[in-house]
Design brief:
Largest sheet: none
Radius of gyration: 19 Å
Order of helices and strands: HHH
Structural class: mainly alpha
Distance between the termini: 21 Å
């Protein structure tokens, strides 16, 4: 890892990714036990699981009259800000920035 990264921001983003992994795994467990699905969710790749989860979230948003595309747009903005924070190195107290 480069010297000029904000370690706390990197750790926060790793925590975010870990939470997302737990959510995908929990969702996969629900899908495996769902007898109405026609495909074998257990054998799907991570990419296929993400796509399936997003598709089902789109159904959920529609049923709840939520704007899925707007949420995706906002989430992209949040993600970009969170990633940008990784490059924001805090100056040590009393430092002159050099």
């Amino acid at each position: 890892m480069a010297d000029n990264v904000n370690i706390e921001a990197v750790e926060r983003n790793q925590d975010r990714a870990s939470c997302a992994q737990a959510a995908v795994e929990a969702y996969a467990g629900l899908k495996v036990n769902n007898t109405t699905d026609m495909w074998d969710f257990e054998s799907e790749s991570q990419q296929e699981r993400l796509t399936d989860l997003l598709s089902d979230l789109r159904h959920w948003a529609c049923q709840n009259e939520l704007n899925f595309d707007e949420s995706v747009r906002i989430s992209e903005s949040h993600f970009n800000c969170e990633v940008d924070e990784e490059a924001e190195v805090e100056e040590p107290e009393g430092g002159d920035g050099q």
